[in-house]
Amino acid sequence: MLYGSFGHFQASRSGVHKGGLHSTLVKAGFVATRISVTSLNQEIVRALAREGIPSVGMSPFACGWSTQRRNLASANASQIIESLHAGFVPVLHGDAVLDESLDCTILSGDVIIRHLAQLLTPKYVVFLTDVHGVYDRPPTDPNAVLLKEIEVDDNGGWSIVKPALQGNRKGVEISVAAHDTTGGMETKILEAAVIARLGVDVYITKVDTEHSLRALKGDVNTSSDDWLGTVIRAAK
Ligand SMILES: Nc1ncnc2c1ncn2[C@@H]1O[C@H](COP(=O)(O)OP(=O)(O)OP(=O)(O)O)[C@@H](O)[C@H]1O
Ligand SMILES: C=C(C)CCOP(=O)(O)O
């Protein structure tokens, strides 16, 4: 899912992700956040319709989804599943939702896709973002190395399979933008690891590139060097 910064500025400015709906500022931020993300959702549905793809926009908040300390508490997917059976492509988005402890928070699209993967066990999952994949350090650093393959074990521990990194370069360092309310690339990797443990390969790659088209078709071969992206999969 790629929503860029849609919703994040509105949410972070008023602190919607931290809760506190009794405050007029948070309430207004909640509304502004939803206007932003639902507007983008409508644009995406319209763009897909122009290409002849019958998609339907679905908002987690409007579907009654809610959280408990930011973890999904109620997330009935029957409307999504029925829409798929009826031949529609459901398009969801990260949303401002009600939270049982905090009053309200921001539910990330990365958490939503993990929940749907747990329910539907797809062949693979693709995350499209604004960089080529997961790097060993923030890609703003010219020495950052793109990690092509990461394996996740049964305990959730993970190791970098490709490329082979030397000594003190074996970890991943992540930075998160100040306006980001859902944890940025860190959340993406954590949720991708949960999906990979289901036996579902996850591809993280850059939107609007040949690499994204190949990932969307499931045409990814990590042994060839011409695909740019990160594959996260379960250890064999
Ligand atoms: N180690 C890292 N590897 C890859 N990207 C990183 C790393 N550290 C920080 N980043 C930053 O993470 C950003 C992508 O994460 P982000 O959560 O913004 O993804 P998105 O899917 O594009 O946006 P959104 O989730 O808001 O729709 C990149 O712009 C990149 O600069
Ligand atoms: C409402 C917002 C800010 C959506 C956030 O969702 P994400 O960018 O997918 O983590």
UniProtKB/TrEMBL annotation:
Example of a GO cellular component annotation carried by this entry: cytosol
Enzyme class label: transferase
BP terms from Gene Ontology: terpenoid biosynthetic process
Signal peptide (from-to): none
Protein's name according to its UniProt entry: Isopentenyl phosphate kinase
Family: Belongs to the isopentenyl phosphate kinase family.
Reaction(s) the record says it catalyses: isopentenyl phosphate + ATP = isopentenyl diphosphate + ADP
Gene3D superfamilies found in the cross-reference section: Acetylglutamate kinase-like
Ranges for domain Aspartate/glutamate/uridylate kinase: 4-205
Binding-site residues for substrate, renumbered to this chain: 8, 109
Entry superkingdom: Eukaryota
InterPro entries noted in UniProt: AceGlu_kinase-like_sf, Asp/Glu/Uridylate_kinase, Fosfomycin_R_FomA-type
Stored CDD domains: AAK_FomA-like (cd04241)
UniProt keyword terms in alphabetical order: ATP-binding, Isoprene biosynthesis, Kinase, Nucleotide-binding, Transferase
Binding sites annotated in the UniProt record for ATP: 4, 130, 184, 188
A Pfam short name: AA_kinase
GO molecular function: ATP binding; isopentenyl phosphate kinase activity; kinase activity
EC number: 2.7.4.26
